[in-house]
Each structure stands twice: as structure tokens, then as C-alpha cells.
């Protein structure tokens, strides 16, 4: 349809429509280039937005899982450090027991040796009861027991510590437990706090000192088992952190493929739409001038 009309300027309307479309596309390109994202709203890519948000939640969960595992490593290192000090006390107690086992000391001298022996036992218990991480006592037996002993239903969890690092809630892949046996002197069968008849209660006599040697060996082995278990758990956590970090990186790369803008491609689109807008503005000016031709015809 062609003609020169006064009431309707169809050419200008067509040009205005094209200008509006090109300007909208130019605005979208500008938003993408300024934000660095291909998807800035659901209208850009509804399915892509849904996938991106799921991936972002997964990435955040994985990164928090890494922090959780690092906190667990710090807790284990705290316990291991305290056990290292207990190790020194046990070695000293074994030395004192050996000293009291020989017959070249008098009863009074053996009682003096036993006083240091008991002091070492008391210090072991003090260390075990006072060692904590973020308010969680580590060596007093609160964290001992099987995995099934864990109870997290109350405000304060009981039993072994549950270290959660996965984004779900499946025990096979998302968490495991840290169980730490008691390292008090009585739990290891040494010192006056040990059960009656225990070979490591005292070294006040030569016979008791000799009997304590085997009890001290058992105590050292018991402590070593705790440390070995903690070392294995720390290595496991470190491997878990490595795996979580790789998983987070790969998920981040996938999310970027979906969400991030390709700057080179988008810049090409931006330039194309910019040229179309400039052309449409120029043509709209020309189309709006057609009414003047009609006035010239009317005016003769």
C-alpha cells in the first residue's frame, strides 16, 4: 500500500516499529556487556536461569563443605596437639615407674617418685578435660562411641562429631563421623583415679611399680590408637577437600557456560544493533518529513 496521506504516516510507523525493536535489542546487549551475564532475567532464558540457579546453590554448598572440612581438620589438629603433650607425660610416667621398680631406693624415696607420678596422671586428666574446640570437649570421652551413638536431635549434639560436607544428606557421600576416645588418666588405667586393682594406679612400692610398667605400655598404645585414628581422619578430610574443590571448579565452569556472556559475540551484536538504531533514527526523520510534501501539494 502506497500513497501520500495526512492522517496516517504508515512509513513513519513502520520505521518507528523497527527502531523500537532495534533499540530493545541494543538495550539487551548493553545490559549483557555491562553485567557480564548472558542471562539477567528469566525472560532471557527461562530454562537456562533455572539450571544456573541450581548450579549456583550447588557451588555455594560445595564451598561451605570445604570450610566445614577445614574446621574439622582444625578440630583434629587441636586434639592431636593435646595428645602430643599427654604423650610426653606418659613417657615420663614410664620413666618414673622404671625408676621405682629397682630395689636401690628406699620407701620414702619411692613415695617421692610416686608423688610426681600422680602429678603427671593428674595433669593428663586436666589436659583431657580442658581440651576443647569451639566449646566442644575433645578428649574427655564425650565424642567416643560408635557412629550410631551420635544424636543431633537436641540443641547440643551428643556422641561422635558429624562432619557434613556434601550438598545432600546421604551418609555414603555427604558426611561421616569423628569419634575420639577418652584420654583421661583413669580411662587409660593409670593414676589414683583408675579402677581398684589396676596395675598403673601407683608406684609407691617396688611390686606396684613393676606392675605399672605393663599398664603404662597399654596406656601409651591406647593413646597411640587415638592419634593414629585422628591422623587417618585428617588425611581423609584433606582428600575430601581436594575432591570438593575440583567439583566446585567444574560446576562453576558449567555454570559459566550457561550464564556468562561471550563478549566477542555480544560486542558484534551490540555494534550491529547500534548501526540499525542509528539508521532507523535517520529514516524516521525522513519519514516524518513526508507530511510536508502533502502540505506543498495542498498549498499549490
TrEMBL record:
**Compartments reported by the entry:** Secreted; Bacterial flagellum
Q: What role is this protein assigned?
A: Flagellin is the subunit protein which polymerizes to form the filaments of bacterial flagella.
Molecular-function annotations in GO: structural molecule activity
What does the record list as coiled-coil region(s)? 223-254
Q: What is its main location?
A: secreted
**Could you give one GO CC term from the UniProt record?**
bacterial-type flagellum
**Keywords annotated in UniProt:** Bacterial flagellum, Cell projection, Cilium, Coiled coil, Flagellum, Secreted
Q: Which Gene3D superfamilies would you find in this protein's record?
A: f41 fragment of flagellin, N-terminal domain, Flagellar export chaperone, C-terminal domain
Q: Which InterPro entries match?
A: Flagellin, Flagellin_C, Flagellin_C_sub2, Flagellin_N
This chain belongs to which protein, by name? Flagellin
Keyword check for Secreted: yes
Which family does the record claim for this protein? Answer: Belongs to the bacterial flagellin family.
Keyword DNA repair tagged? no
Q: Give the organism the record lists.
A: Humidesulfovibrio mexicanus
Pfam families xref list: Flagellin_C, Flagellin_N
Which residue ranges does the record assign to the Flagellin N-terminal domain? 6-142
Q: Where is the Flagellin C-terminal domain?
A: 214-290
Amino acid at each position: 500500500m502506497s500513497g501520500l496521506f495526512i492522517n496516517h504516516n504508515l512509513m513513519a510507523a513502520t520505521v518507528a516499529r523497527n527502531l523500537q525493536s532495534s533499540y530493545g535489542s541494543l538495550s539487551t546487549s548493553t545490559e549483557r556487556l555491562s553485567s557480564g551475564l548472558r542471562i539477567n532475567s528469566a525472560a532471557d532464558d527461562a530454562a537456562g536461569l533455572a539450571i544456573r540457579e541450581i548450579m549456583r546453590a550447588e557451588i555455594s554448598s560445595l564451598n561451605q563443605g570445604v570450610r566445614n572440612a577445614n574446621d574439622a581438620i582444625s578440630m583434629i589438629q587441636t586434639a592431636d596437639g593435646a595428645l602430643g603433650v599427654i604423650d610426653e607425660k606418659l613417657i615420663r610416667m614410664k620413666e618414673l615407674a622404671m625408676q621405682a621398680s629397682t630395689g636401690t631406693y628406699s620407701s620414702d624415696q619411692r613415695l617421692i617418685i610416686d608423688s610426681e607420678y600422680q602429678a603427671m596422671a593428674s595433669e593428663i586428666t586436666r589436659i583431657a578435660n580442658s581440651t576443647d574446640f569451639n566449646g566442644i570437649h575433645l578428649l574427655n570421652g564425650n565424642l567416643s562411641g560408635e557412629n550410631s551413638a551420635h544424636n543431633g536431635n537436641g540443641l547440643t549434639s551428643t556422641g561422635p562429631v558429624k562432619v557434613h560436607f556434601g550438598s545432600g544428606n546421604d551418609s555414603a557421600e555427604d558426611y561421616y563421623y569423628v569419634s575420639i576416645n577418652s584420654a583421661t588418666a583413669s580411662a587409660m588405667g593409670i593414676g589414683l583415679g583408675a579402677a581398684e586393682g589396676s596395675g598403673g594406679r601407683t608406684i609407691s612400692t617396688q611390686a606396684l611399680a613393676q606392675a605399672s610398667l605393663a599398664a603404662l605400655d597399654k596406656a601409651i598404645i591406647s593413646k597411640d590408637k587415638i592419634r593414629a585414628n585422628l591422623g587417618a581422619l585428617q588425611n581423609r578430610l584433606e582428600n575430601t577437600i581436594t575432591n570438593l574443590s575440583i567439583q566446585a571448579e567444574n560446576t562453576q565452569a558449567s555454570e559459566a557456560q550457561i550464564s556468562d556472556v561471550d563478549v566477542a559475540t555480544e560486542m558484534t551484536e551490540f555494534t550491529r544493533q547500534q548501526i540499525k538504531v542509528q539508521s532507523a533514527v535517520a529514516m524516521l526523520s525522513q519519514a516524518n518529513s513526508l507530511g510536508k510534501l502533502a502540505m506543498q501539494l495542498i498549498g499549490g
